[in-house]
Fold this sequence. Notes:
Largest sheet: none
Number of helices: 10
Radius of gyration: 18 Å
Number of strands: 0
Helix content: over 70%
Distance between the termini: 56 Å
Strand content: under 5%
Shape: elongated
Order of helices and strands: HHHHHHHHHH
Amino acid sequence: MHVQEWLDTVPAAAVYALVGLVIGLESLGIPLPGEIILVSAALLSSQHDGINPVVLGACASVGAIVGDSIGYAIGRKGGRPLLAWLGKKFPKHFSEGHIATAERSFEKWGMWAVFFGRFVALLRIFAGPLAGVLRMPYWKFLIANVLGGIVWAGGTTAVIYYVGIVAESWLKRFSWLGLVAAVLIGVASMVVVKRKAAKANASRETVGVSE
């Protein structure tokens, strides 16, 4: 069944809850398609009066902020052993190379890494837990987390909603286009991160050999 057709059969409250939950779990550090779910729901809200885009954006923002905050707390308590455990459970997402790339971003950009990390598929998973592991001051993390969550979730909802309003008839026939675009953007961002991670691994291996 088409994703939007399936969402169309779900009550509005359930859509809000689903979006908030999936984005919250993704922000917590669990690899889930939060952006795809948000784009699907935003497209749905543009074509059906039952789904309020303001409420949807608010639920997505709350899920992003709360999820990141819980991830921060877990990372702060779990420390490096947590990253090692995650690396065993999710080697594709929490490999040493990926963690090294994210860590360099945090060292270079500080709280801005949390803010801009919200817009990169893989870094959305890292931001909260890694900020906690690196013991970023919570007030800095909270500011970046709140701003990033609102701008990303609210902005994505608004853009997709208005695109759906302007091109409603076209999107009804090609509603997968928005999802495909979101997937391509996510894949592209992951490719960039993976390349950086590969370079980080190569650099570390070179250093190890030289030592």
